[in-house]
């Protein structure tokens, strides 16, 4: 798959991409235009042309104005209600599906119409994944990067996959207690009694948690709840705005009854975590070369929500990078070692850099606990990776053969610019935001890199969110590697 991605001249593109190409809008389509916050486009209905990157249907009214339609699929004829009018486009939702797409399915969750957690449950899972692949291809193309083949797909179960979630808690003006996720396009909470994407052991806690909150003496002092599943069982962390002794004991009894670990995070400013049950050593397992590796973490540390897909991503990194024995690898945005530890187990000398001091401590401990510590295997350090000078200094001082980037949604622009200015190492980029990835990929391609492997990871099934992995190689690096193979 060499030469998979290469730079090409920039060309104008439409504003969105989707599962099918843009279709001309017919003059027969009608809409009622006005200033009301919500209005209907009825008559013969509107035909949806494609999906936008965020999963909304895209069409045009009779006057050519673009409509983004929640809950609509390509090829469908729908009546819509417009709930927001803008200068260049309107936002709408489906009032009635007149002709349904063959890829429309019944959402598996009863809360789907109101909850903002999942936005693609009306679309069959294979079509969701094709859409995500198309989005990544389109965003790269907007940066002038054309792919010779479709991205690989890394995917797992479509339900019961999420191992962590944050639940909002609110007592309304009438005294009703709400526990759940935010409503779509709103700060209002939707009560969630059952969540199809949560791991079963976490989903089973939702109804008991609602009853528990109602029974508290001071439920208004609960900010939110965080649920977390690990190899040690289920953990609940309560964000408590103000100390309340009676409620503290009630929560302790709840944890005992349900056999869970319980953390108590108290205070509005700089809250400190206290364990109301014996403190657990939370951990999960990731694949190494010869054995499974144990990754310890704490509440608040970054942890991929989908364990199955994360394991596939780690295995893919090991496969793509191949023989690392004796190579120096720089892992930026390393977290607690999700990629650092497996790559060190492949024989690489890993320097893992993370911005959070507490996660650096756990990363270093994870290296020692998995017998990967020491000067020649894995060392951890803290640095501000948003600064190009910092990354450039790391590249100069360490001289890595491989660089791994696994940044937050803001991306790794400073690192990409530093690599483009001093090219050489192979770059494995793991991205949770395709738009910032495309921006950073453009810096690398302009610096002489090209994409040799690419994959979409369906980390968040039933949502428009996508993760991706790209392997970049520089022309001079490829020549060196090819020469070494010939000499060998």
Automatic annotation (TrEMBL):
Question: Which Pfam families does its entry note?
Answer: TRAM (PF01938), tRNA_U5-meth_tr (PF05958)
Locate the region Disordered: 1-40
GO process terms (BP) = rRNA base methylation
- Residues annotated for S-adenosyl-L-methionine binding in this entry: 304, 333, 338, 354, 384, 406
**EC number(s) reported in the record:** 2.1.1.190
- Is NAD there in the keyword field? no
For this protein, the record's InterPro entries field holds:
23S_rRNA_MeTrfase_RlmD, MeTrfase_TrmA_AS, NA-bd_OB-fold, SAM-dependent_MTases_sf, TRAM_dom, U5_MeTrfase_fam
Tell me the function of this protein. Catalyzes the formation of 5-methyl-uridine at position 1939 (m5U1939) in 23S rRNA.
Query: Which PANTHER family does the record cross-reference, listed alphabetically?
Result: 23S RRNA (URACIL(1939)-C(5))-METHYLTRANSFERASE RLMD, RNA M5U METHYLTRANSFERASE
Q: Which residues bind [4Fe-4S] cluster?
A: 109, 115, 118, 195
Q: Which domain of life is it from?
A: Bacteria
**What keywords appear on the UniProt entry?**
4Fe-4S, Iron, Iron-sulfur, Metal-binding, Methyltransferase, rRNA processing, S-adenosyl-L-methionine, Transferase
This protein's record includes keyword Ligase: no
Q: Indicate, by first and last residue, each region the UniProt record lists as having compositional bias (Basic residues).
A: 1-11
The name this protein goes by in its record: 23S rRNA (uracil(1939)-C(5))-methyltransferase RlmD
Species per Swiss-Prot/TrEMBL record: Halomonas icarae
Which reactions does this protein catalyse?
A: uridine(1939) in 23S rRNA + S-adenosyl-L-methionine = 5-methyluridine(1939) in 23S rRNA + S-adenosyl-L-homocysteine + H(+)
User: Of which family is this protein a member?
Assistant: Belongs to the class I-like SAM-binding methyltransferase superfamily. RNA M5U methyltransferase family. RlmD subfamily.
The TRAM domain covers 37-96
Q: Which residues form a coiled coil?
A: none
Q: Active-site positions, per UniProt?
A: 432 (nucleophile), 432
- SUPFAM superfamilies, per database record: Nucleic acid-binding proteins, S-adenosyl-L-methionine-dependent methyltransferases
* Gene Ontology terms, MF aspect: 4 iron, 4 sulfur cluster binding; iron ion binding; RNA binding; rRNA (uridine-C5-)-methyltransferase activity
């Amino acid at each position: 798959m060499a030469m998979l991605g290469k730079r090409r001249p920039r060309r104008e593109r439409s504003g969105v991409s989707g599962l099918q190409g843009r279709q001309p809008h017919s003059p027969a389509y009608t809409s009622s235009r006005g200033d009301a916050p919500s209005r209907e486009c009825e008559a013969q209905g509107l035909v949806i042309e494609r999906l936008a990157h965020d999963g909304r249907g895209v069409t045009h009214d009779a006057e050519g104005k673009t409509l983004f339609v929640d809950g609509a699929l390509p090829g469908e004829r729908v009546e819509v209600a417009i709930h927001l009018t803008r200068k260049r486009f309107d936002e709408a939702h489906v009032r009635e599906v007149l002709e349904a797409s063959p890829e429309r399915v019944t959402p598996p969750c009863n809360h789907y119409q109101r909850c903002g957690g999942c936005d693609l449950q009306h679309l069959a899972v294979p079509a969701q994944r094709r859409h995500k692949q198309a989005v990544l291809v389109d965003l790269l193309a907007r940066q002038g990067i054309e792919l010779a083949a479709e991205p690989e797909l890394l995917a797992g179960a479509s339900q019961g996959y999420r191992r962590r979630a944050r639940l909002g808690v609110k007592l309304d003006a009438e005294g009703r207690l709400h526990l759940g996720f935010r409503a779509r396009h709103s700060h209002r909470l939707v009560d969630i009694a059952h969540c199809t994407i949560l791991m079963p052991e976490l989903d089973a806690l939702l109804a008991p948690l609602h009853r528990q909150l109602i029974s508290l003496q001071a439920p208004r002092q609960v900010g939110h709840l965080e649920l977390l599943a690990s190899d040690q069982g289920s953990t609940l962390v309560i964000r408590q705005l103000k100390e309340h002794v009676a409620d503290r004991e009630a929560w302790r009894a709840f944890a005992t009854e349900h056999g869970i670990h319980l953390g108590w995070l108290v205070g509005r400013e700089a809250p400190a975590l206290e364990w109301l049950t014996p403190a657990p050593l939370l951990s999960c397992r990731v694949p190494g070369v010869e054995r499974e590796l144990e990754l310890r973490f704490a509440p608040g540390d970054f942890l991929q929500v989908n364990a199955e897909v994360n394991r596939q991503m780690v295995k893919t990194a090991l496969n793509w990078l191949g023989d690392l024995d004796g190579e120096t690898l720089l892992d930026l945005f390393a977290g607690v070692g999700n990629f650092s530890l497996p790559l060190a187990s492949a024989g690489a000398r890993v320097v893992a850099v993370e911005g959070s001091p507490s996660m650096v401590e756990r990363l270093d401990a994870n290296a020692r606990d998995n017998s990967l510590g020491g000067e020649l295997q894995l060392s951890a350090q803290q640095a501000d990776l948003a600064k190009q000078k910092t990354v450039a200094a790391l590249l100069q001082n360490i001289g890595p053969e491989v660089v791994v980037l696994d940044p937050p949604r803001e991306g790794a622009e400073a690192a990409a610019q530093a690599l483009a200015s001093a090219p050489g190492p192979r770059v494995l980029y793991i991205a949770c935001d395709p738009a910032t990835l495309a921006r950073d990929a453009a810096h690398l391609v302009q610096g002489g890199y090209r994409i040799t492997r690419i994959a979409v990871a369906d980390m968040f099934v039933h949502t428009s969110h996508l993760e991706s992995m790209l392997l970049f190689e520089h022309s001079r690096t490829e020549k060196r590697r090819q020469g070494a193979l010939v000499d060998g």
